[in-house]
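Morning F.,

Quick status update on the modeling queue. The single chain you submitted on Monday has been processed. Sequence for confirmation:
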Amino acid sequence: AIYIRGRVQTKKWSSDPTDLSFNIQSIDLLGVIGDNLIKSITLLVDIEQLNMETLNEINQQFIQSQHANNAEKHTEENTEVPLNFVLYDKSGNNVKMFSRSCKINRSRELYEYFENNDVIKMKIN
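Structure tokens below.
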């Protein structure tokens, strides 16, 4: 799979303004681009459903992700990105926060965990 970035423009040599062309600016492997485009990760937390069991489960996910990254650190570059939080409730109140010291490792397992979690959702920025 590849990632193509380009621009759609009217053709310079055509008198018809509906005559368009796609000019390719870059081509990369999709797996490499995905890692490079992720600037931060935001966890959207429904505080009305949050409990200690869920917090412990999430902590375990972060620990497993950290151990997996440390095991692969000698072959890959650092994949940690900043971690943000949005705490919200059903009445529409929300609080946006970010962590200065905690960063999260990009991993497929962590993404899948949050995709299947009803209490906490993940947004990739």
